[in-house]
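Memo to structure team: turn this sequence into structure tokens by end of day. - J.P.
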Amino acid sequence: MSTQASNRSYGYPDNTQIPYYDGNLVPVGGNGTYYMPKNHDDGHHISSDDGLQTSNSRAQGFQAQYCTLDSSSANCVYPAHSSTSSQSQSGSPQSQQESHSDHAYGSSPSASCVTHVPSWTLKDLENVMLGPDSDIGSPDSSLLSGTALHENNWRELLGIKTGDLRQVIIACGKAVDENAWYMDALMSELRQMVSVSGEPMQRLGAYMLEGLIARLSFTGHALYKSLKCKEPVATSSELMSYMHLLYDICPFFKFGYMSANGAIAEAVKGENFIHIIDFQIAQGSQWMTMIQALASRPGRRPFLRITGIDDSNSAHARGGGLDIVGQRLHSIAQSCGLPFEFNPVPAASHEVMYEHLCIRPGEAIVVNFAYQLHHTPDESVGIENHRDRILRMVKSLSPRVVTLVEQEANTNTAPFFLRYLETLDYYTAMFEAIDVARPRDDKKRISAEQHCVARDIVNLVACEGAERIERHEPFGKWRARLAMAGFKPYPLSPVVNSTIKTLLDSYHSYYKLEEKDGVLYLGWKNRKLVVSSAWC
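Reply from structure team:
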């Protein structure tokens, strides 16, 4: 553990958070009819949670890349014999934005962005698909009996209806999962159908395709790390941050923060010394209204301590370290006359130990896990199960309440293709929700999706093992983990539920709120997206 809790605190004076696609496409059709082997194996292998392996021949045969996200290489040209461990390099977001002003995969790519696609002859095709020594006409060769792929019938043979984008997205994921010989042709087809300024499925398809390409080129982790939700200075009136935009147009974050804060406020009624431990404080925005609410409490105002935990990856979004959060919250507390102290812990959640929390006798402790715990690795990632360890440590603090807000998805231990389908289903609902709130050609909306949503999609699709950070679990699994750690449900109050229902009235009618066994679910149409619960 290299990071240590800082001793610095803030006390109140009176002490009272285009595609890059390889040139080596295998064209299907043309003037000839191509017969393909039934069990072709070119040596490329992808496994699910044990990492990815590939042969050099496959890497050489699939070089092309999709330059959709701002983090893509400036020239987007990779050498023909690039190592499979090569990492993507960040380019200028502004220059990338300008060079892709049409924001569409289907538009004509610039010469600097796409590797040259050579003309293929039938002999070239035979060499790639069968090997240079193969005799395609040999009666001993393993061919698809009587099945020929023509330019016009390959979609039908693969069970894909022309123009059905969702089916093509699914078929691409299945082809990558099975390393199918028609994978390149499918991805080329998908490339022509998606656009980051199109309909929700077109936009999601663009990022799913980006994830597939990153998976095959082993650049998913670098791409995930390079995409940051950028936050301008709080006093800036010229720009709205990507996260603030999503916060304003979708109720996901407001729902989570309001439900958690309501449970916390109820649990600390009458307490004079309150200690909130936030495992991902980010900009600290969640606690601004809490500070104001505690300051307006009748009688003596309580003393509030907040321990803010966050790793260095969030420093870019904040424009600096956790001290910025402490100063911001201290300023608000001071203006309200609330005694306040901030304890920064610059560490990832799985690095946090008891000593970092600076627990004091007599404090009413509350712990907040808002959209964070799915980032903490569990037993499926390594020998140490930090997810359950953290919950047991928190239980040892005897907290008044623990709040958990998580996306309702099942992507933690699911094998690749099932995870791919879950990602498609979940983010279809999210992109539809965003679509009704902002115009499709809105550049801020495009940037928000690229930096704050696409990065998660790429990580889910492209990464395995320790590199896959996005590891959601359905609420049933969270409930089991919390129960094993000794927690019991703490039902959310009717007042909180009523407040959230009022909040949703200002959004689209497709948003649905469901209460079940003291737990709140926020969904879009029939898809549950976020679940909020409290425990003690």
